[in-house]
Design brief:
The chain is an alpha+beta fold. It contains ten helices and five strands; from the N terminus they run H-H-H-H-H-H-H-E-H-E-E-H-H-E-E. It folds into three domains: 3-97; 100-168; 174-301, Histidine kinase-like ATPase, C-terminal domain (Heat Shock Protein 90). It is elongated and about 115 Å long. 19% of the residues are buried. Bound molecules: adenosine-5'-diphosphate (ADP) and magnesium ion.
Length: 304
């Protein structure tokens, strides 16, 4: 059903309802709304159909006065037709809220594991270091070289645990805020991948934790994408702080891609980013052209 066909149905059903405003006729308004929603029409199409139908009612009555009861009945019909939209809007809002709770639960869990890795496993390793150092004094010199190997393995485990813990949950984000955490992330990706990642931007001060972690995760996913897909030789992160909103843009000079890819991908990354932003009242924008790199801009309100 397109908008014109809908307007015809709407007029016919409204006409019947105004002749005889009973429950059964009213339920046709709800059904009409349900079909319109399923066929991808919007509330503006409904409003336009209602307006058109009302004009037809008025002109049919020519100069005769319209009783208040008719106006009231027409309003009821209109509201009934819109109610499937209202229900689906509430559903979407609840979905966004549930999604946000789930994300917060996941972030808390990641934080717990990160602390366990960093603090508890870290302390155990420190005790092993002491024990090994103790043993060194008691061993004959020829065995000490072997012990040195054990020590360097322990050091590697320690570094890996620390990196893993930072990746799971960046403690610097909790302690110092978004800008230092992004600086740290840019440096570690530069070190790991060998392409320079620069960071510029204003200091946003402390933002609500959920906003900080969401922007951080967005940059993390965008940089992962740069490494995985872009074949870029450099990338940049830019943080802009306005009075109401913060925006963060991640650019690369890689192969770029058609924006339609986003809709037709199995990848969870960008879809996840969009959902997380939506849940906070934010948005995601793309500029990407084949062979001319990609820019991804996330924008989010500063407060909750
Ligand atoms: N910076 C980028 N440069 C080139 N292509 C990209 C970039 N970011 C994303 N893409 C493309 O968009 C797709 C979707 O990305 P994403 O949702 O993160 O999923 P995934 O990374 O799991 O494939 C990728 O598969 C890739 O083709
Ligand atoms: Mg990805």
């Amino acid at each position: 059903m397109n908008a014109e066909q809908f307007a015809e149905h709407y007029w016919a059903s409204l006409h019947k309802y105004l002749d005889d405003p009973n429950e059964v006729q009213r339920s046709t308004a709800y059904e009409l709304g349900r079909h319109a929603l399923a066929d991808g029409l919007g509330v503006l199409d409904i409003a336009a159909a209602h307006y058109g139908a009302l004009q037809r009612v008025l002109s049919a009555r020519a100069r005769r006065a319209i009783p208040g009861a008719v106006i009231k009945a027409a309003n009821e019909f209109f509201a009934e037709c819109l109610s499937p939209f209202e229900i689906s809007y509430r559903g979407a809002r609840e979905g966004a809220r549930a999604w946000q709770h789930l994300n917060e639960a996941l972030e808390n869990e990641a934080k717990r594991i990160a602390h366990a890795l960093h603090d508890e496993a870290g302390q155990l390793l420190a005790s092993v270091h002491f024990a090994v150092a103790d043993m060194a004094g008691e061993l004959p010199p020829q065995s000490r070289a072997r012990l040195q190997e054990v020590k360097s393995l322990l050091n590697r485990i320690e570094t890996e645990l620390r990196d893993l813990s930072h990746e799971l949950h960046p403690t610097v984000l909790d302690r110092l805020g978004l800008l230092p955490a992004l600086q740290f992330l840019a440096e570690s990706v530069t070190k790991r991948a060998g392409i320079p990642i620069t960071l510029k931007g204003g200091e946003p001060g402390r933002l609500p934790p959920v906003v900080e972690i969401t922007l951080y995760r967005i940059v993390q996913e965008a940089l992962n994408n740069v490494l995985k897909h872009a074949q870029a030789s450099s990338a940049s992160i830019e943080l802009k702080v306005g009075p109401q909103r913060v925006s963060c843009t991640i650019r690369d000079n890689g192969v770029g891609f058609a924006a339609e890819r986003i809709q037709h991908t199995d990848g969870l990354g960008l879809a996840g980013i969009r959902e997380r932003l939506n849940a906070l009242g934010g948005s995601l924008h793309f500029v990407s052209k084949p062979k001319r790199g990609t820019a991804l801009r996330a924008e989010v309100p500063k407060g909750r």
